[in-house]
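User: Please predict the structure of the protein below. I'd like the answer in structure-token form so I can feed it into my own downstream comparison script.

Assistant: Understood. Taking the following sequence of 486 residues as input:
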Amino acid sequence: MLRWKNILFQLLIIALFVGIVLLIRLQPITQTFEFDYDEGFNLMKAFLYSKGFALYTQIWNDQPPIFTVLLSHWLNIFGNSIFAARFLTLLFSALLIWCFYQIIRLTLGSLAALVATILLFTSWLYIRLSISVMIGIPSLALAMLSIYFLYLYKQNYRNLYLVLSGSCLALSLQTKLFTLYLIPLMLFDLLAFQSKFIEERKILKIQLKAISLWLISLVFIYILIGSQYQQFWNYEQFLGTHLNQPSDSRLENFNNLKYLNYMISQDYDYIFLAFIGIWAIFSKKQKNGLLPLTWLVTATFILLRHKPIWYHYYPLLAIPICWLGAYGFDLLRDFFIKKSHGNLNLMNLKKLTIPYVLILIMICLIIITPPNPRGSVPKNIELMQMVLKYKNSTQWIFTDNPIYGFYAGLRVPPEIAVMSYKRLNSGDLTSTKMLAVLQNYRPEQIILTRWTSQIKSDRHLMTYISDNYSKTYSNEQEIEEHYVLK
């Protein structure tokens, strides 16, 4: 009975988190046309998959399959609405928040866990990413669930938790590959743990057995899923576009140091608390703090090297920063507890001053930290109305922004379901391929909103469009255009 009460209480906490986000962000969830262009890509891939098109062989896809498949089934159950899709991401975010809280609670107690969770919830763009149809938060949620199972294993050494941990990280990698670097960090965490209840001569044997079982679970589930969706037979899609990114000096995202500094400047106050946490980890020899510390160092190094970096990578830093912040809070709390029970006349002046100085610096950083920018892709109502006007006579839409097709319930040719900057910049999607798509599918509508100038600069493409299509709409800047088949 106590176990079921605890489970129900934990579910209530998750529901409370979801309810809070819905309460403060219901209007953006339901009325924002598009938070990010990636939303359109993910929605259209899921929509096409639900129509029977296969990933990789038919639907061009440079990401792992799990989120697309799950989103497709989710929309089949709850309807093809933007609210349903964003609600799914919100549920993943609730799972992430819950796991984050539980992990810290196991090591530092409920109060430190609550403070760290509030920090993460209010970190730069976390709420916006929690309601965007993007794959970063789902991948990180599954990774945090994997770490939570790892911490449960270190408490009672049940092999089931190792299997669940490895399997969850495999699911995370099959959602988005950017959690790959957590593998060596979690292996190190397994190798470093010790227990006063186990003899020292036996601990190494237990550690090696745990590592083997965890790795076997991870590799088996990862390969099983990849084989199921023919992921490994499409190297150019899955890895080629990510590895073949020529530097573009015009784009700020290729200036790693500058853009990374912009991201962390949004949370200077949290970073300062994290530095206090690092001090606490070393001064108090808290081995459990090594995982968030190595996570932060590794993620920072990767983001300094990886080109380009995008704003939605920031949770890779925010999670360990807020996690370390829990250790910082715990140290400050200890300072004040000792002060309140000590003899002020005998206290060292330095010990008396340090916590107040740290709190003062923290307050100053909170004041100077800029508010979280909301931002969203602008919605063109007129363009959407044109798409709906010709919906009944349309089978296919050729577009560089497939969310228009999703809202209208119309298909985009699967070869161009993803017309991203990454794909164009790597040279994977050329004007020749676009022309072939137009000729093969003869889409009844063409919508251009993102790469209009690039497409219009190609003589062969525009000749074909001019000969076969009539322009029905163009905005003043001639960036957004709509064509119908003659």
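That's the full token string. Residues 371-375 have pLDDT under 50 and may be disordered.
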